[in-house]
Design brief:
It contains 6 helices and 2 strands, in the order H-H-H-E-E-H-H-H. The protein is mainly α. Bound molecules: protoporphyrin IX containing FE (HEM) (2 copies). The site of one protoporphyrin IX containing FE has 21 residues, from helix 1, helix 3, helix 4 and helix 5.
Length: 180
């Protein structure tokens, strides 16, 4: 989106979130569908629950930056493609929020964060826990589709000569050149 220039803070938060989300989606679905040993299953579960719990405050920070930026952006001046990109980005934020909330609420045990902190299990009603598990799983399916759509759009833009990846470069000089 040409109307949006990304700050260094936003770029770091984007790549941190992308790495955690892509890893959690792939490893989570892998252990849920492939017959792996109980040790690997336990290890992935421990790592993913810890990692995504630590990720929550970073995501809230990122969401605040996104909302603050969106409020100061003149959406009316956007062309249809930019509006579509903004819609997909907003959908991604909404679905990640749902995945995080349902992940916490579906816990059927205390939330063990890297063996350092233990957060009490929020719900004890088994039926509710199982409902949140179902929502969590489907929200993860929707998130996977949005990620595929997002990465696909980036590839199509690049192939058409719109250098969108430079906007998300970790090097501020490359991002600066792109904005001019
Ligand atoms: C962006 C964040 C997250 C992503 C992308 C994600 C992704 C996934 C995926 C793909 C699965 C496998 C679903 C299936 O069984 O088919 C899963 C299961 C699970 N998730 Fe999440 N999740 C996230 C956040 C959380 C959080 C914050 C918690 C709790 C603190 C959590 C707890 C669990 C638990 C307990 C399971 C069941 C399997 C296990 O014990 O690992 N998730 N998650
Ligand atoms: C792994 C490969 C990925 C690539 C190559 C990539 C690339 C990009 C690029 C180039 C932009 C800037 C688009 C523009 O406005 O011109 C962007 C923005 C964005 N990306 Fe990604 N992305 C990836 C993964 C992800 C993942 C996994 C998520 C979250 C599920 C995500 C969420 C977003 C969001 C919400 C934005 C809007 C800007 C913001 O609010 O920070 N991306 N991405």
């Amino acid at each position: 989106m040409k109307a949006l220039g990304y700050s260094t803070q936003r770029v770091w938060l984007h790549w941190l979130s992308a790495a955690i989300i892509v890893w959690t989606l792939i490893s989570g679905f892998y252990v849920a569908t492939v017959d792996v040993s109980p040790r690997i299953n336990q290890w992935v579960s421990f790592l993913n629950v810890s990692l995504t719990t630590v990720f929550i405050p970073f995501f809230v920070w990122r969401l605040c930056v996104f909302v603050a930026h969106a409020r100061h952006t003149g959406v009316r001046t956007f062309n249809p493609m930019e509006r579509l990109a903004l819609l997909v980005h907003t959908l991604i934020y909404l679905v990640i929020s749902l995945v995080l909330v349902t992940g916490v609420l579906m816990m059927d045990r205390p939330i063990n964060v890297f063996g350092l902190v233990e957060i009490v299990q929020p719900l004890s009603n088994r039926e509710l826990v199982s409902r949140f598990f179902t929502i969590h799983m489907w929200a993860c399916v929707v998130l996977s589709l949005l990620v595929v759509l997002h990465v696909g759009a980036v590839i199509v833009h690049e192939l058409c000569g719109h250098r969108v990846l430079r906007r998300m470069s970790l090097c501020s000089r490359v991002r600066g050149e792109q904005r001019q």
